[in-house]
Amino acid sequence: MSFKDLPLDARPREKLISRGASALADAELLALLLRTGVAGKNVLQLAQQLLERFGGLSGLLHTGAEDLKAVKGMGGSAKRSELIAVLELARRAMGERLKERAVFDSPGAVKQYLQLHIGSCSYEVFAVVFLDVQHRMIALEEMFRGTLTQTSVYPREVVTRAIHHQAAAVVLAHNHPSGNIEPSRADESLTQTLRAALALVDVRVLDHIIVSPGQSFSMAERGLL
User: Fold this and answer.
1) For residues 140 and 95, is the Cβ–Cβ distance under 8 A?
2) What pTM, to 2 d.p., does this model score?
3) What are the angstrom distances between the C-alpha of 181 and each of 93, 97, 127?
4) Using CA atoms, how far apart are residues 72 and 46, in angstroms rounded to an integer?
5) What distance in Å separates the CA atoms of residue 153 and residue 127, rounded to the nearest whole number?
6) Which of the four pLDDT bands, split at 50, 70 and 90, describes residue 181?
7) Which residue from 21, 105, 144, 188 has the highest number of Cβ atoms inside 10 Å of its Cβ?
8) In terms of DSSP bridges, do strands 137-145 and 169-175 run parallel, antiparallel, or are they unpaired?
9) Is 75 helix (H, G, I), strand (E, B) or coil?
């Protein structure tokens, strides 16, 4: 089934034109990209299935080609390629914004950016956002990966990458696949260890952000730095 099979007032394209993009639900916006459904499932139902399977838009933004291929109706390369291209454009657009302005001019954007990149991973990831003297983003690097319960982080490697980027400051980040974003004692201890190591090369730790799909925790905002 395609859009033409839907009632006129339920067609996302007409709704967007008459009421604006903000009036559309996530599934409706996604349906505009997909254009057609599959046997027994219209395009809106297919869009909703994708959102539910991957944990909403943030999860979908972290989805790769092989994950999409496993979904009935997404096996064709054309549809998958178009969707992956749009998702990658969204990630890059947010990254460019953080490179143009100080990260704490828009703290919410930093959290969203980190959620898009590591929030939906099923394994634990430790990442570092390297910043210049004006606190604009130089690069985001995923530095360590672990299991669902533990990640080994080596301060010397973080310091080495900070020197490589000539960073003046960093934002530390990792995800909690369990969905509980409260920091553990080990998280707090690691933060202080990295803070001390980076201070030796005159690099400030501005924050340590913990993310999961749709959630984030800032140690700086909670006074833990």
Assistant:
1) yes
2) 0.68
3) 26, 25, 15
4) 9
5) 10
6) very high
7) 144
8) unpaired
9) coil
